[in-house]
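Re: flavin-adenine dinucleotide structure - here you go.
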Amino acid sequence: MKKSKIVILGGGYGGLITSRTLEKLLKQDEAEVTLINKHDYHYIATQLHKTGAGTATDERNTLNIPSLLSKGKIDFKRGTVTDLNINQQVVMLESGETVDYDYLLITLGFDVDTFGIPGIEEFAFKIRSFRSTKAIQNHIIKQFSSYQEDKDPSRLTFAVAGGGFTGVEMIGELFEAMPNLCRVYNIPVEKTRIINIEASNTLLPGFAEEAIAFASKYIKKNRVEVLTSSKILEYTGDIIKLDNGKEIEAKTLVWSGGVRGNKILETLGVPIQKGRVRVDRELKVHGFTNIFCLGDASLFLKEDNTPLPPTAQVAIQQAQLCGKNLVSVIRGEKLHAFEYHHKGTVASIGNRAAVGKVGDIKVTGSFAALLKQVIEARYLLVLGGPRLLLKQLFKSKKTQPKVSLSNLK
Ligand SMILES: Cc1cc2nc3c(=O)[nH]c(=O)nc-3n(C[C@H](O)[C@H](O)[C@H](O)COP(=O)(O)OP(=O)(O)OC[C@H]3O[C@@H](n4cnc5c(N)ncnc54)[C@H](O)[C@@H]3O)c2cc1C
């Protein structure tokens, strides 16, 4: 009998956990499964702010995909998806190669939403992928180095747009990175400025009052200037223009104002809503029986008609179910409906503090920071078991985040 061909687009949280689930559930030779990803590494997206600030090593935040797929049931193909022909059931890659499928899973993740604000697309840094955040790290180092020559204060002014979850996590890493950079370049820390710009009237909208109060106090104590109720109208690459008439001279603006589904989704010919692919209870794309979608690329409406948020937590849970559903669909069995179980949300503010809620318990400070590390460790455990967890923990211990003059050249 002809084997079914399953093709998975994207090797992020959704694509990898689905692949791992398929490895466990599929019998040998039951299906041909191909995972396609832009790069041969998987990046831990929830830790990208650390890559941006240079407070975690690259080897800590990236994992080689082929070595995670060890059971010989999944083929990995490195490639960038550019198009999809739904009628012929073919995926097109940038290289010109085509891959045909019987069943398709789209899990291509998120893109940054710049809301059309002039200059953001061109000049602001985005926390979108490993490469885009690595560019932030390199840029910061360059600013320190150039400051030694021209003493331009705007080089040492680091602005983060957005005081939500990601913005606050980015700010926390930035203020922890400053002392080390200042030491290396022999610049007083007082010369650096970190500014957080948030359009609404509070940091961390949606978080509990205690969390907001703790985060605001902690961030300000670490010399961060917080500008709430401030909308960015334009960024020129040198000047941030705000709606209250204020102008800030800054050669660094990190944009974390919002996310949407991957822009490539719009070209794939599947129904799109609010930048994401609308899926049914079984995670099938509306109107299709052989195309699934999950994670940030998907729009899953809860009973109350509100969408599930674009989080790793959602992507992981959906992937675990989607793996089962892909097996059911090729075996002609009944599919399962997705049910989301929210386990909590914890935002880090650097390495030593965090705020959030785990279950019904509100947490702040160093205990919350510890819980955040447990949450991150749990992902590695789900992905690769205790071996992967230990391997990654050992890596992070071995190479403490540091900047030395030699590795800056
Ligand atoms: C700084 C930061 C902190 C976060 N913290 C948390 C947190 O604490 N908790 C939480 O639950 N969530 C958090 N999130 C959100 C979480 O990271 C995302 O929800 C999660 O990554 C979504 O998983 P995904 O599989 O849908 O997409 P992704 O993880 O984005 O994976 C998409 C994959 O598709 C690949 N890809 C994209 N386009 C193409 C293409 N054209 N061709 C081939 N491959 C392609 C990408 O390279 C990537 O490997 C955070 C996000 C950020 C940025």
